[in-house]
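Help! Submission page says 'invalid entity' but I think these are all valid:
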Amino acid sequence: MAIDVPRRWIPCFKVLVHLAALYPLINLYYAAFSDQLGGDPVEAVIHFTGIGALNLLLISLLISPLAKRFKLIFLMQFRRMIGLYAFVYALCHILNFLFFEVQFDLQLFIEEVFERPYITLGMSAFLLLTALAVTSISKLRRKMKSRWQILHNFIYLIALLVVIHFYWSVKSEIIEPLIYFAMYAALMMFRLKKLRGWMKGITSS
Amino acid sequence: MIIKTTSTSDCKEHDVTDENVYHQRRELIKKMGFLGAGSLLSSSAGASILDIFRDDKIPSSLFSQNKLDYKAINGFDEELTPEAKITGHNNFYEFGVEKQQPAELSQSFNVNPWTLKISGEVENSLTLGYDELYSSFDLEERIYRLRCVEAWSMVVPWIGFSLADLVKKAKPTSRAKYLAFETLYDPVQMPGQRSRRLGGGIDYPYIEGLRIDEAMNPLALMSVGLYGKTLPPQNGAPIRLIVPWKYGFKSIKSIVGIKFVERQPATTWNLLAANEYGFYANVNPTVDHPRWSQASERRITTGGIFAQNRIPTLPFNGYGEQVADLYSGMNLRKYY
């Protein structure tokens, strides 16, 4: 039995998703600019946007299994949007690092990206995610045909890189990153068949 | 003894900054709670969906700090870090790994009675009770830069006494080559010692060490206060070490034991990741942490996100004039 919601509700839900994604971000920067974000607002904004991006990425990966299992087809209409917000949070994460952590010292920024493996990994994930964000436009999607799906399946690799990036970045508190690993693994379990097909697709194309 | 030199590394006073920020602290904590309350993603700046499992309740009453009698000093150059930031941004994993957690989870910490035991290779074993921490030695103010291994820094007006005075009082024997420090182990009071997740998965009690000549250096301070009052728990009440030329993790908090020993003692972060944290841990801009650069640091002062200035890190955190001799002939890349 497919559960569907009336078409006219969808825009309302979309507004809610926009608010849920934007409100924490606006609040965060308001608090950071007005010095209400604890002792080190720089660390706070970097961590918040980083974890936020990962959370949104995992939520976007949860949508299609949910939609399939519970026949909540309408959920699929939110997937692109949530994926794009994951990109927005990731972009903020990197801009926070560039603007506030290294403070526009481009040389230091580039050195850190290339010399620190966990940052190299995170940046690779971001570049891949950028490719996905750019090609999320419907026009491009149609143009790319079957290659679009092959490219967008890279989200599984991106999510893995991000989880490793998180694990690698902490000093000793590894339990939280390990829980993220477990969540990632659970989300991949739904897709074993598809993953195999994807691997074949890459190697043959 | 009083350190009153005019060396280039000294801090000098221009503007002793706003303590009024301190009084907005409760407000601040409340707002941070509000920030997350309606959000999809988190419940605090430390942001994660796991936060719902946390019991970081805002304490109903703050730990009470007493005014201290001490010899104040005048004449510093660098802007002090506001008290609210010094007491609201702490690495003290015994009370949680996130920077705001120690302030939130430590306010009911009981420091009286306290026992600091000085033992080992000494002629004069000592036990200092709570009151004796403040009365056994002359207290003086010292404004030091604090450089965290995570590449941020603060300028803190500590109050305390010279570690050297304590060492002299204990009369070390000729076999005493090192000092081994230990933090209180009390899982009932310290939630990070109960939970591996809250405590960052490090082994407790926290232990640190110094070579005896390092301990005798006039800069080494046993701190019992900051900003004119006794230490709050999140900063290491009632007594902590301050070695300003070393990364912050050397400056062990809430000390219950100092043992004089013959061999180099084990230290917590070194045990956890020897390739990242050495025994010496002298501030050194030319030796990077494997995962980040140590060449510069973000100085935490007043103001929001735009006020956190990146400045070059100085060898020995700018105290080379006073301490570089301790390490002459040593390869500081090897002994990081």
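Support: the input was valid. A stray whitespace character was the problem, and the output above is from the cleaned input. Chain A has one domain: 9-204.
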